[in-house]
Amino acid sequence: MDGAPVNLDPAQASDLYTKFLVVNLYDTLYRYKYLARPYELEPNLAEDLPQVSPDGLLYTFRIKPGVRFIDDEAFPDGNGRLLQAEDFVYSIKRHFDPATRAQGAWLWQGRIVGLDEWKANGAHYDEEISGLRAVDDRTIQIQLIAPFPQLTHTLAQGFAAIVPREAVDYYGREFAIHPVGSGPFRLSRFDSAGASLLRNEDFRAEPFSLQEEGYNPITQGAFGLESLEGKILPLVDRVDIEFIAEDAARWTTFNAGQLDFIKVPVSQFDQVLKNRNPPQLVDELAGRYHLLTSLESGFVYTVFNMDDSRIGYHPDPDQAVRNRALRCAIIKAFDWKRRNEIFYSGLGKVFPGVIPPLTPEYDPGQDRNSVTRDVADAVSLLNNFGWNPENLPTLEYGLPSSVTERQMFEQFRSFMSAVGYPQEKIRPLTFATYGDYARAYINREVMLITSAWTMDYPDAENTVQLFFGPNATPGTNTANYNNAEFNRLYRASSSMQASPLRTAVFHKMNRIVIDDCVAISGISRTLVMLWNRNVAMLPDREFVGGYFFRFVGVTDTTDREH
Amino acid sequence: MLGYLLRKLLHSLLLILGVTLVSFALMVYFGPDQTYKLLGKSASTEHIQEIRQQLGYDRPFIRRYGEYLGDLFTLQLGASNSNGEAVSDILKRTLPVTLALLVPGFILGNVLGVALGLLAAWHRNRWIDRIISSASIAGMSTSFLIIIIVLQVVLCTPYGLNLFPARGWQVTGLASYLNYVTVPSLSLVLITLGYNTRFFRAIFLEESGREHIRAARAFGASPAQLMGRHVLKNSLPPLLTRVLFSIPLVIVSGSLLLETYFGIPGMGKITFDAITNGDQPVLKAVVGLTAIMFVMVQALAGMSYRLIDPRVS
């Protein structure tokens, strides 16, 4: 993996790497089908999809029978006990207990009857919550305050993994490094360099079914998955994961034959790919490895801090109009084609607005003006609204300290030079770590904020909420954008089930963000993945994520040297 | 000798107080704020306050510093804010790995540095000296990263000799230890040898020019006697100073690149992660213990000077 988790507590599984491990060590009620694209929800620990009341407020879940936590000294006799509905209730409650330092409460905050009040009353675990309860050992009921169609998606997140209370009590804060779950694997090693997962021998005996997982023989036929049909999950006894953040070290280790799978560093794309469209491996690698290029679910984008009157909202309506023209000119001056070529090897997918290509609501036919460079138009906008080199504001561009980030800033500055923006008026605000950068933009101290959003579930609600007024910082709306019409549409859509009508609402919201020139957006990066031909799998870093480990099969072990 | 030791001890205590105060102030006022690392994707003002309170950021500086000193002297190092693991356990787990990783390369790098320095000094301005000096400069000018990557490619991949693993630390005995430590050690030797050789050569040259060396040479002392008994022995104080003072630096910072590029779960990587994550309990322990280690090394160096040279008071 190109990063390292430091903590394996599901309540703190906010980053990709932690999630990868957590969903293998613990169970969640749902997951995404391994092979189905677009992504589809699939019951995991749940027996079936939930029963939902006609008003969309009451969800009932049944969990599979006979599921056990792994044996661990946290249990009175060292033997893992049966997982029960009450464990799910406990696991969600933990997110609302300040002592947990949980990072996933936002998924359910203000959604479940009585949950926020439970926290306000001191988070006593023995106190019941009317909207979150175990009806019996295998039945869970969730009562919502208002319809929340994405609820089932939230239960496929690492945050929703189910933990036993005994282990949390027994290990205290060290529970984060002593996972006790019921997932397909158990942890045998975890340090700053890597982790090893061993098969959980007590994992429920579920056979691999190509059909149930959404197999497509046309697009997935070359990966050797058919040989795994009917085998019991997980398919391998052991998974070794190396945490290698440095591109050069990851590539060397892969070349040394010590890794079966790698996400290829962008710097190596030229060495690996013979063709880009369609992507094709160079001949010397083609015989040894499978290749998959896959678009990320999220996207990279830059927002203007609308709370900054030099570029965003202004009490003087005329100045507010001029500021909008300035933002639009900057967007028009931005060259997405060059950005893609220089930093993403031309493999990224540039799209207008904030609904990225991997969401079901993405509109491939939409107007691409906002991502097409037009220097003449940008200059004319500046001139028409009275902007000149003397009165243009100094742009403060935030970035965490790294060579790539700095290069991106320099490229941005060169794009702006082309429309007459004085170089000295575009300043980098460099922060030593991402945490410092986050602190600055959460405190609204950065004018232009570039960040990447990783989607939590395949639903455009997860990206349009980035511009919902009440989500302003310290929430996810880092632009501090607040448009009444957008907010109204967001509220209206939040209780709508996925439908063409809701998609149309999302498209309207996307248009509003584009028209208000709030963001330079966006690009979804393409990941290039290689893995040994003797490994049958379809890797995924998006919604399936770490769930794919259980489906990995090794067809031949003879050429494994290390 | 007792008076000397007491003076050293008092001096050391003051030094520890100074170093810990400065480093703690840097951590608190300029270090990363872990609050924002622990927030997750979406936060509220209330959530931020909760975390700041839990991390103790809302308490007065002096109180926090006092507690830090107390913890340090009682070795109650607390738990990592990132994953709750006891800091003492983290150190127990990672320090032996780092020592096992660095000791062979460290010793070899210094011994070879001394040998090459002596050789170059003896052959001053002749072709052997020129070759050694040029190679040292080349070594000093080459990026650490390039040395590591080239050695990995040459020794650990099928494109080269493929003799050793490129990554890992699954040490179960002497054979596996040698298997995993060889390439990192070679890297460390190549990284440090240029600097060591240049430094030691300069010391030996200075010593070689002294009157008593010229006198010994006039009396017919052999090259081995001259360099070994006279030059090396009289150069020991600065030599020991450099070697001893580089120990804490090598342990804390020198191992970072090796651990990162060879996938070795040692103390350098833990320290680096603690710095970037703002994990203050880990950082405080490493900084405090490093300060103590420096002071101990200084005291050790002082005592060794007295043993080597009785004129030192």
Structural commentary:
The complex is a heterodimer of chains A (562) and B (313). Chain A has 562 residues and is of the alpha+beta class. Chain A is 26% helix and 18% strand. Chain A starts with 15 loop residues before the first helix and ends in an 8-residue tail after the last strand. Chain B has a domain at 91-279: Orthogonal Bundle (MetI-like fold), CATH 1.10.3720.10. Chain B has twelve helices and no strands. Chain B starts with a helix and ends in a 5-residue tail after the last helix. Classes of the chains: A alpha+beta (562), B mainly alpha (313). The interface between A and B is large, with 52 and 53 residues.
Count, helices of chain A: 17
Question: Order of strands in the sheet with the most strands of chain A?
Answer: 15-19-14-18-16-17
Report the mean per-residue pLDDT of chain B as an integer.
88
The share of residues in extended strands of chain A comes to 15-25%
- What is the CATH homology-level superfamily of the domain at 91-279 in chain B? MetI-like
So what's the CATH class of the domain at 91-279 in chain B?
Mainly Alpha
- Going by CATH, the architecture of the domain at 91-279 in chain B would be Orthogonal Bundle
What would you report as the Rg of chain A, rounded to the nearest angstrom?
A: 25 Å
What structural category arises from helix and sheet content of chain B?
Answer: mainly alpha
Which helices and strands, and how do they pair?
The complex is a heterodimer of chains A (562) and B (313).
Chain A: H1 16-25, E1 30-32, E2 41-43, E3 51-52, E4 58-62, H2 85-94, H3 115-120, E5 132-136, E6 139-143, H4 151-154, H5 165-171, E7 185-190, E8 194-199, H6 217-220, E9 238-242, H7 247-255, E10 261-263, H8 269-272, E11 273-276, E12 279-281, H9 283-286, E13 289-295, E14 299-304, H10 317-333, H11 336-343, E15 349-350, H12 375-384, E16 395-400, H13 403-417, E17 426-431, H14 434-442, E18 448-453, H15 461-464, H16 484-493, H17 500-515, E19 519-524, E20 526-532, E21 535-536, E22 553-554
Parallel strand pairs in A: 16-17, 16-18
Antiparallel strand pairs in A: 1-2, 3-4, 4-6, 5-6, 7-8, 8-9, 10-20, 11-12, 13-20, 14-18, 14-19, 15-19, 21-22
Helix pairs in contact in A: 10-12, 16-17
Chain B: H1 2-30, H2 45-55, H3 61-74, H4 87-122, H5 127-141, H6 144-156, H7 174-208, H8 211-218, H9 223-234, H10 236-262, H11 267-277, H12 280-308
